[in-house]
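agent: user wants the full assembly modeled, not chains individually. Plan: 1) parse entity lines 2) check alphabet per entity 3) run joint structure prediction 4) return tokens. Steps 1-2 passed, two entities, 636 residues total. Proceeding.
--- entities ---
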Amino acid sequence: MQCLWLENKKLALRQVARPQAEPGEALVRVHLAGVCGTDLQLLAGIYPFQGIVGHEFVGVVERADGHAALTGQRVVGEINVGCGDCVDCRQGRSRHCAQRTVLGIVGRHGAHAHYLALPVDNLIPVPDSVSDRAAVFCEPLAAACQILEQVPVSAQDRVLLVGAGRLGLLIAQVLARTGCTLRVVARHDRQKDFLRQQGIALFAEDEIPSRWADVAVEASGNCDGFHSARGALRPGGTLVLKSTYHGKNEIDFSSLVVDEITLIGSRCGPFRPALSLLSQGLIDTETLIEDVLPLAQGPAAYQRATQAGALKLLLDCR
Amino acid sequence: MQCLWLENKKLALRQVARPQAEPGEALVRVHLAGVCGTDLQLLAGIYPFQGIVGHEFVGVVERADGHAALTGQRVVGEINVGCGDCVDCRQGRSRHCAQRTVLGIVGRHGAHAHYLALPVDNLIPVPDSVSDRAAVFCEPLAAACQILEQVPVSAQDRVLLVGAGRLGLLIAQVLARTGCTLRVVARHDRQKDFLRQQGIALFAEDEIPSRWADVAVEASGNCDGFHSARGALRPGGTLVLKSTYHGKNEIDFSSLVVDEITLIGSRCGPFRPALSLLSQGLIDTETLIEDVLPLAQGPAAYQRATQAGALKLLLDCR
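--- prediction returned ---
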């Protein structure tokens, strides 16, 4: 089959054998796959990975031994695969299993290919009401939903979101649905236009009031974004760290203590709430699609995804 | 009256006029006052303050215009005085009011004196069952109790406390009462002896297991303590920052995101739970008293408080 293979910071089309579905796993024929910021970080060599990249997908189960009912089902999939045996797995935190593999990120070939393999337990059927073009957003939308799993946000809260990239624009929509007073710091005109169309208000970077926000979400992927978010928080407020970036960040711990600030790291999230939002048509994903390119043009899609302000590049893997 | 006056990193006995109780304030004759790590930081010039130091006290209300019933009452007192008018004060966060004064710390003369003045609303009567020698621990014990206001800790949790100084030994006792599996990292033999007497188990600094703790509390006052606490946390765990220290700390934000760690800054706490614990005799404060010196020997008390492993120095201000 054809795939996008990453090796030594280079991405190339390659022909490889179809993945072997291990016992308990299903073979999935990929329909659409998304290019994510994490994929670009892998390509930049920030995390070590060699193999088939990609972790955002929707596809159809081609074969799942012992699970006949699943065959032919359209599915999305939780990307973390725990060992099933450690204390984290036993206590329901398999996404944090130290021995985990992660689709297209850690020790497991990914979704930028004609086929992928994932445990049957990781797969979630997609209702007919959700198109492939929407379902492929399930994984990043789940990551956006994770914020609300970790921090209660209500209509009484003032929330600042710093960063309006591919993930940020999903986060903005999820936060807006809580009825909170939401302001977003966006850099690019297309992001601003999208937010305005959604009825979501903006703050310019230089007009963020101090002590304004009950909750701030940092999704900009850089240190400046952290400091903007921190500066906007009221005492006792909560800062959600939603983007990873290389290197260390210097922060003033005493100020966190004196102001009793909470920092929360937030990564992957629950697929079912995300699918539910998509099936009800409550999240605009269609406008977030920059373009759909065939898998064979994968390297070009990655190239376009790196451009400033680029929205979601999808790969058609059929 | 006599007081301990701080100016230009120097502490000296000084004769000053009794404080004027403003409208709504009470004049309190101080019985006992404690020397706290924050007092030592003020003396070291880490925070700017000039005037009478001290914020841990128990005393008797000498006069409270319009509140006759309070006169003669033995009291402890919440040390933060909000403006009463800003959004933080109106929403119940007067401890975080940007215009607040803080007894002996910010813009308000403190407790290392024969008399102090505080708003009537800040004072909490001390039941007869609580001696002066116990009541004087109410403020730091409230700071220890604040941890449980911010983080639910149950008998199912594994909790690591790094640091067993004056505050740490109160925190250890508060945490132990939850029934959690508690381990404490202590440096000095007296701290270790006290903890063992309390039936609280220890970890040596070099034997802290990784991914062990559901909750870690950093009360060591230094960067190493933070890294020990962080290293002990399981993914999804919570790190409570309980000590302030000068300067910035370098941390790896990506690891906080990937492991979904929560950092919580924790400062002052609620007096009523602390008084309740003291009135039930559930916290050993007596063993934590290093010595009681007369106010006139205040500078010597501060000197002794700076010695490694020193427990609580009290000033008799009568």
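agent: reporting back. Chain A touches chain B at residues 87-88, 93, 96, 98, 150, 211, 226, 234-236, 241-254, 256-267 (CB under 8 Å). The CA atoms of residues 24 and 119 of chain A lie 6 Å apart.
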